[in-house]
Amino acid sequence: MMRLEEFILSFSIILISIMIVGNVIAREVFNSGAFYFAYEVSKFAIIIATFMGIAYAARKGRHISMSAFYDFAPMKVRKVMMIVINAVTAIVMFVMAYYTYNFVLFEYNTGAITTSLEVPRYLMAVFIPIGFLTAGIQYIRNTIVNFTAKAKDKVYLGIDAVDYNDQREKDLKMEDISI
Amino acid sequence: MLATLLSIMIILLLLNFPMMIPLILAPVVIMLIYNPNLSMDILMKQLMTGIESPVLLCVPLFIFAADIMTAGKTSQRLLDFVGSFVGHIRGGYAVTTAAACTMFGAISGSTQATVVAIGRPMRERLLKMGYKDSQAMALIVNASDVALLIPPSVGMIIYALAAGSVSVGDLFIAGIIPGVIVFLAFAIYNIIHAKVKNIPLGEKASWKERFVHFRKALLPLGFPIIIVGGIYTGIFTPVEASGISVLYAIILEVLIFKTIKWRELPGISLSTGLVTSAVFILVAGGQLFTWVIGFAGIPRMITEAVLGTDPSALFVLLMVSVFFFVGCMFVDPIVVILVLTPIFAPAAEAAGVDLIHLGIIVTFQAALGSATPPFGVDIFTASAVFNKPYLEVIKSTPPYIVMLIAIGLLLVFFPELSLVLIQD
Amino acid sequence: GGGDGDESEDTGSEDSGSEEESDSGSGEGSEEASGDFESDQWRMVTEELQGEVQFVYAQEFAKRIEEKTGGAITVEALEYGALGSETDQAQLLQQGGVELAVMSPGFTGGQVPDGQIFSMHYLFPTDQEQIHQILKDSEALNTDLRKKYEEHSITPLAYWSEGQMAWTSNTAIKSPSDWEGLNVRVQESPLMRESYDAYGATVQSLSWGELYTALDRETVDAQENPIFFIESASFNEVQDYMMISGHNNYVAMTTANTEWYNGLDDNVKAVVDETVKELQDWVFDEQKKQNEAGLQAIKDEGSTEVIEFDEDQIAEFREAIQPVHEYYREEVEGIDPELFDKLKGEIEEVTGE
Ligand code: NA
Ligand code: NA
Question: Matching Pfam families, A to Z (chain B) (predicted)?
């Protein structure tokens, strides 16, 4: 079963596909502009996917980082680094949630609407603070997991992701994207 | 200010922070220190601006299509078919990868989309052939950048607008020779590399085997035909082609080959969404960074200080190369072209530089910059798509960067390479 | 425009010395300026690139303000790109992040629906001098519409035209029925859908970055833009016809942040008002120069036939679009019918119809 965040992430990608394909078919087959909202809805979906995906990517340890020095550090140092990185990142996420929440209020107060569907623009922005907030919570969980018993001889990048440096012997699968 | 900004970013980067943190934090800190009276809302708005360009939509869609084809049989059948022809040639797969990236770049016009659509299936086969992963990824990331040089290039269209009276059609033609030079350089390098590293050869396939692979690949071969044909006949745009490729992948894998069930699609799109988020949060953060340095007037301040009065044509072109290269290491190429071109074009024109020639230099450096550490956006894409550490992706790029810098200089010193095809 | 090269270098180098203070310049006051003006730095953001109409307008504005204040007040002109999209720039002005902006009325994110009045087809006359006069003198625009913008912290100081919008297409469009079945790419909105529907054409949304190629390959058939921009973006290279149709003009507003403008000293405010007023005639000539140069370049390039509508054709289109004028007045969300009627009356006065 998918969790809510997974469902949202997965659905937004499918939604973009439907919009873009629908627009082509409407134009080329029916010579119609019926999918006039295609790009606007896609914009909506891409914002949702980007920001609602932060927490999910954090859980899976999939955010991009420059691990050059980290990779050479011994396990204890890596663990300390991961704890600090996850904790500080959590703080930054919460600060961003606060700032973007204010931005949503600002959008709400301007009453601005979108050009095609003429819906309030804050509806689009509202996913940004939610995304940062859930990401902040996830990074706290990523911090805590490194203090638990199961992290005794391992470092966790995210609660679902053990540090690849601890798995070197086990011949890491190239594509561990869960399908 | 610039020093503060860069030090914050580099320290956080080296400490293995998620790259979104320096990209987000540095601009926020700068705003708090230098413009405390200005509302943070303006800056936050940029998080949306950065990712709402419709052209970016082809990134998740091509990833989705590639994910479906990788989960199913399409990419395997295509690779078997290609392999039956090039598997026994030294460096054959690497050259095929470079060619596929160049061709796909030509039709999609997007470097990121190329990394995804060609990179995924080709990397798998390169690994099987005995290439090191970093080698495979360096080739993919750099070959994908040729996309910016071969029409229809979004970068050139943006440049033409920013530079004023420049013909997009002429730019498209002028990019052909430089694009071919880059492809040849990569091909030769890879053939030599394969010889030196003694990459094992596959068995030479018989014509009968080739025919079997061809028959199996018949429907998958419809994929490039539909995409290329659809774009060139104008049935759809490159972005729309990414949507159509999702549709075609679903038709093949779900309806015809029945390798994937409908209920498996949400799981595949979930992994697409994960990669999309990891890349796009950086695009959004890059826009914050761009906005702050733009608001502080830094790009213009620096360029005007550097150019001085009455610079020579050669000096302008070299400076253009440096600025676009460095700019695109940090910021999205489209934004760099929009911001820097209007500053450099008048000075270049005054110094006697042909604006088409300038456009080729600009596009070339933008392509090079987006494959160059630390912030090259194609490196992010590869790192996210292949789920590989950043360092692994960039480890084998130096030879490519050196080749590209050399070609860049060649293009500066020999304007004919860009201009010969458009002279009457 | 090549003739403006010298100016751009001048303003540029003065700006670069003052970057560090950014927008908090007014309090510094180290040197008491000449005359009665306290030294200050303003910024004027535009939606166009260097050399294009809005940007040279901003440069000329900067030059004159500096002269009139004896160098005490400097204005930095900012081109499109660095500070985000058009709507971002509008918000920047609303929040006082920049003092001044040149913007088109449509980019306020639907906050002032009446701004759409400028995108209606065949509402304004086709004679450029008459349009110039209406934009300068209209009370509906300069008083009533200004008030509506001021509710959102935007004070339009002047409205001016950047020239006519032209249609480009691969089929010749000489009467409304020639639009039948064509796909046209314009900035998507309900009003635009309704307008082109009246001619039988379909509005298609398409990203700007793909437009050149889409026109080339006939993914879409037509688009609209000001003439100087069509040339700048090279759309003429991939289209066979350009219709100087008189359907519309590209209107820009010189705007100030309302709170900032109202807080200016009287003598400073007087200088701003005076400069904006002077520039109305100046920019009329400037856009004319740029559009004529653009038109000439399109003719020289030679692949595009230019079709200029005559009185009869314009009358025919005007007739076809009438229901959309009604639609705008009655149906479009949030617009003020009285403002529409008033402007229409003022236009009729000028054209003598
Ligand atoms: Na052009
Ligand atoms: Na033409």
Answer: DctM
